[in-house]
Amino acid sequence: MNATPIAMTMGDPAGIGPELLLRAWLARDAIAAPFFALADPDALAELARRLTLAVPIAVVDPAEALGAFEHALPVAPLANAAGARAGQPHSDFAAATVESIERAVGYVRSGAAQAVVTNPISKKTLYEAGFAHPGHTEFLGELAKSWGGAAQPVMMIWSPLLAVVPVTIHIPLAAVPAELTRRLIVSTARIVDRDMRKRFGIARPRLALAGLNPHAGEGGAMGREEIETIAPAIAELLAGGLDVVGPLPADTMFHPAARARYDVALTMYHDQGLIPAKTLAFDDGVNVTLGLPFVRTSPDHGTAFDIAGKGLANPSSLIAATRLAARLSG
Question: How far apart are CA 200 and CA 258, in angstroms?
């Protein structure tokens, strides 16, 4: 196992994150990477009792996590209240969710942790408490600024079958054409190329860019974004030495023969990329944030309030996220 643990957040305490923490520790031999949780230790112990999961809880400082990990789930307690009822999200617990993320990033910066693995949050609950960021990814980008310099966080959903990056993320579909600029496409692709080389060890990443419109615009008959925005961005990337193709019709990019021709697909909006990614690998897909000075991964699913606390949560995606975090930060 690695000599430095991974910092794992609890996510929304009313969601399945707390149960996933317990089940991840039970799968520690498969993960082969030590971690500690930022959560409410009493709430985790009570949840383990109710679900009859044999998970002892050890309240620790991160420096003590390695010594405790083999025999108990190490938990660094939160200052804010995190004892929400399963399946009943409330803005009263938003501060604990945010604290968990902030402290996890801080532990990586201090060297007490090697990477951050986050459990799912509820954006609606955080918004009700005044959270100012569109989502996890954007918040992590803001936290990264404290490391020095600006950061452009880029969301990638990764699995052994498909890696996909949406160029625009958490914005309304109606806002995509205005937000989709040549500059954004170029900067996103450059970050993907850099981190695929640096973290994933791919010497020359092959990037495939989707069009925005049906049939990639059909030569301008179904929209001109491909001609006026996407194609010029691709030309700039090619001139810079990147291995890029497109714009491609999104409806033919994700069958097996097409996927074999690229390492990462860049799509123009959120669902254009995440629908195929989650269809192909819902249980073992991982959300990876590129463009940060630290490694962050997460399950590619949500809080699942409807099954929270019922013993039904599947830890496969969190296990995959933790394994990948250990690989990328190793």
Answer: 21
Q: State the amino acid at position 128 in one-letter form.
A: E
Return the amino acid letter for 129: A
Residues 304, 269 within the same domain: no
* Residue whose token pair is 């490694």: 295
pLDDT of amino acid 300: 83
Contact 157, 136 (CB under 8 A): no
Q: What is the dihedral of CA 121, 124, 128, 130, to 10 degrees?
A: 60
What whole-number distance in Å separates Cα of residue 291 and Cα of residue 190? Answer: 9
The pTM of the full predicted model, rounded to 2 decimals, is 0.89
Q: How far is CA 85 from the centre of its chain?
A: 25
For residue 93, what is the domain's CATH number?
3.40.718.10
Are 285 and 184 within 8 A, CB to CB? no
Give residue-wise pLDDT tens across range 113-142: 999 999 998 888 888 888 888 778 888 888
Long-range contacts, 84-87 (Cβ 8 Å, 24+): 84/12, 84/13, 84/14, 84/43, 85/14, 85/309, 86/14, 86/18, 86/47, 86/308, 86/309, 86/310, 87/14, 87/305, 87/306, 87/307, 87/308, 87/309
What's the DSSP call for residue 167?
Answer: S
Domain, as residue range, for 21: 1-149+295-330
Which amino acid makes up residue 23?
R
Q: Where are the beta strands (DSSP E) in 81-197?
A: 116-117, 154-158, 163-166
Number of structural domains, the chain? 2
Report yes or no on 154 lying in a domain: no
Partners of 117 in the β-ladder: 8, 297
Q: Is 154 helix (H, G, I), strand (E, B) or coil?
A: strand
Q: pLDDT tens for residues 297-324?
A: 999 888 889 999 899 999 999 999 999 9
Token pair of 229 as six digits: 């925005």
